[in-house]
Amino acid sequence: MTGTGAGPPVVTEPGTGFRPMGFETASILGMDSLLYLCYYPSMRKNNERTSADVSADRPIYNRIAVLRVERGLSRRDLADALGVNYQTVGYIERGEYSPSLELTFRLSELFGLPIEAIFSRQPFKPLSEELYGSSSPT
Amino acid sequence: MVHTPARSLPPLLSSRSGRRALAAAWALCCLAFLVLGSLEIKGVLWFVLFAVTLLADGLLFAATHRVADRPTSTLDERERAIRNRAYHAAYLLVFYGLLVVVGGAMLLFFTGNEIATRWFSHPTDHPAALTGFGVATLQLVALLPTALVAWMEGDEPDDLD
């Protein structure tokens, strides 16, 4: 189950979710973020995990930097093509920002590659290793 | 149209540690206004503090590319996300800050504390304190989201490679 609202979404296991009293009412009034802040320690105590915890556990790797350099593009060139700031391209390359689905599709179209060739849950192998196998030269 | 900075910033403004130091310096300036006011200090120190605060304001705006107060149409999705996080954190900080300050003052007043009673009865007897509180509040309202963006942003990538 994933919580909604302005605060970080909370991922809970079915049946173990800690739902403080008044959360629904507060959500209607737009005050759920405050309650979330108040109850956050209790939620952690109940082993609930926020989406930030989940993404820290399972980072998303990308090979945008390699693909960009392959095509002779600077960060600014890529940013202009995507309609974002060049800093944003840098943050995505470093894995410090996960792009939206919209931006992910734009990257996929721009590089002419499927999304799974650009982003992965597993670290990417070096291209040389992918092409020539894992045996080291003698 | 997304706003793209013309060039990379100097290291002081583009590194996380530099930006955090800047945000901390700005917070200290706000605190200094309160201290100067409550100690009823008058004179040239106020002008020095004003100058330093204005400098910190300018550097904070430059370091964050004014993400916190630029029109939404000129921000990309990452900038909108960090601005929203900063506004959310600023709202919570101001809410709890006011709760503590106003709640504490009312508690002191209603329990018959002598200083609090004198303050609430004749607030204009303390112009320096009022000025300090006013300037610090204005700074907080105007620049807290910008300072929070400066605090939250990571090391800024350059555009060269």
Mean pLDDT of chain A: 73
Largest sheet of chain A: 2 strands, antiparallel
Number of strands of chain A: 4
Round the Cα radius of gyration of chain A to an integer and report it: 20 Å
Q: What's the helix count of chain B?
A: 6
Strand order of the largest sheet of chain A: 1-2
Question: What's the mean pLDDT score of chain B?
Answer: 89
Q: Give the fraction of residues assigned to helices of chain B.
A: over 70%
CATH fold title of the largest domain in chain A: 434 Repressor (Amino-terminal Domain)
N→C terminal distance of chain A: 53 Å
SS content category of chain B: mainly alpha
Top-tier CATH class of the largest domain in chain A: Mainly Alpha
* Biggest sheet descriptor of chain B: none
Low-confidence stretches of chain B: none
Molecular structure report:
The complex is a heterodimer of chains A (138) and B (161). Chain A is mostly helical and 138 residues long. Chain A has two domains: 10-56, no CATH class; 61-132, lambda repressor-like DNA-binding domains (434 Repressor (Amino-terminal Domain)), CATH 1.10.260.40. Chain A has nine helices and four strands, in the order βααβαβαααααβα. In chain A, strands 1-2 form a two-stranded antiparallel sheet. In chain A, helix 5 (75-82) crosses helix 6 (86-93). The relative contact order of chain A is 0.11. Mean pLDDT of chain A is 73; it is low at 1-18. In chain B, helix 2 (16-38) packs antiparallel against helix 3 (44-64) and helix 3 (44-64) runs parallel beside helix 6 (127-152). Chain B is elongated, with a radius of gyration of 19 Å. The mean pLDDT of chain B is 89. The two termini of chain B are 24 Å apart. By secondary structure, chain B is an all-alpha fold. Chain B has one domain (13-152). Helices cover 72% and strands 0% of the residues of chain B. Chain B has helices spanning 11-14, 16-38, 44-64, 77-110, 114-121, 127-152.
